[in-house]
Amino acid sequence: MPPRPPLAPAIDGARAEEEEVLLRFPLDDPALLFRAMLVCKAWRSLLTSPKFGTRYRNLHRAPLLLGFFENEENLRVWFEPSSPTSPFPPMHPDHRDLVVLDCRHGLVLLRYPVLDSDARAEELIVWDPVGRRQWEFPPPEFAANITYDNAVVLCAADRCDHLGCHGVPFLVAFVGTNPSVAHASVFSSETREWSPVATCYPPPPADPDFAVDLAYEPKGLVGDVLYFKCDSVILRFDYIRAELSIIRGPS
Asked: Whole-model pTM above 0.90?
């Protein structure tokens, strides 16, 4: 009687088919992948492997949405999971009253103290909620002489597709305004320094309805250019060329 053929190829073929099925789990419910990890050790090993994560991101061209952060008046920073079975519980970076300025490329940018009308920024915190890491540093010097401020956190890794950012290196673009001037600078996690300050001024003659009061709303990123909404204009900041300018909206 001839010996039985080895079973490894059949098992490998079954695992390959299972992987193809798991890869097609939708992005809008990450709990499905979390539940799949509980089925068996083989699936848990597959789903937590770097290879699967890379293939999943390349197929869907977007990372999983695990939840979102909000600034709640009483609780301040709060993480709201996108699913009741999300593997990430509600989180807070530390005991201080902080406010979220931006969340991008797997990082959260926070400001201390909160955005009270008379409070100048004392510290900026970049928080990696998945890796449980955070980096803290002071704002640029011009932050002491402005009325409003806002900022954006960006991945600075070379040739990164931003589908699986790992926290460092990063950049923080900080913009501050008062009624007569706007400033901007960029912090690098690699040099631990702020770049030279870019400045722009409202065009003369002064318009009584002209305002550069930064609004704390989502910021736009197009290529290497950031857009900050103000009361009556948009601030355009090319953070690579260090160029800051004003765009007037339609009348």
From this structure: no
